[in-house]
Amino acid sequence: EVRLVESGGGLVQAGGSLRLSCSASGFGFDEYAIGWFRQAPGKEREGVSCISSLDDDTYYLDSVKGRFTISRDSAQNTVYLQMNNLNPEDTAVYYCAADSRASILLSLWLTLKDNPSLGYWGQGTQVTVSS
Q1: 112 — phi, psi (to 5°)?
Q2: Which residues lie below 8 Å from residue 79, measured CB to CB, with a gap of 6+?
Q3: What residues contact residue 27 under an 8 Å CB cut-off, 6+ apart?
Q4: What is the 3-state secondary structure (H, E, C) of the chain?
Q5: Residue 17 has pLDDT above 90, yes or no
Q6: Is 72 within 8 Å of 80 (Cβ atoms)?
Q7: Parallel, antiparallel, or unpaired for β 78-83 and 3-7?
Q8: CB 122 within 8 A of CB 6
Q9: Per residue in 38-81, pLDDT tens?
Q10: Of 113, 115, 92, nearest to 12 (Cα)?
Q11: For the chain, how far is it from start to end, CA to CA, in angstroms?
Q12: Statement: residue 104 has pLDDT above 80
């Protein structure tokens, strides 16, 4: 059974930090690019960050560059998103998503937004940043 389980969300004040974890099982972790989408109320889902499986190439949404850092631990089958200097605009449900196509071309991971059936998804974790 394929599972992506997110944890680490919560309520934090502006300027604070959180670390999200995505624990993967049931598929070849090292064959998938894995990352995080987020969706705020009334807004479209957007790709926040992802990391490749081959060369640790990374993608970041412009608004999180310099504040968020993604990493992966193959021994633990886990991907982490360290989020620093959070602001209220970061408030959203954060979803972990895995894509085997993006192991070859990282930019394909972003297309999961419009083609979710092509990848694996977690259930989401809420991040709320208060001002």
Answers
A1: -60, -25
A2: 21, 22, 24, 34, 35, 51, 70, 71, 72, 73, 96
A3: 2, 98, 120
A4: CCEEEEECCEEEECCCCEEEEEEEECCCHHHCEEEEEEECCCCCCEEEEEECCCCCCEEECHHHCCCEEEEEECCCCEEEEEECCCCHHHCEEEEEEEECHHHCCHHHHHHHHCCHHHCEECCCEEEEEEC
A5: yes
A6: yes
A7: unpaired
A8: yes
A9: 999 999 999 999 999 887 899 999 999 999 999 999 999 999 99
A10: 92
A11: 40
A12: no
Number of alpha carbons in the 13 Å side-chain half-sphere of residue 64? 25
Residue type for 84, please?
N
Distance between CA atoms of 30 and 52, rounded to whole angstroms?
A: 9
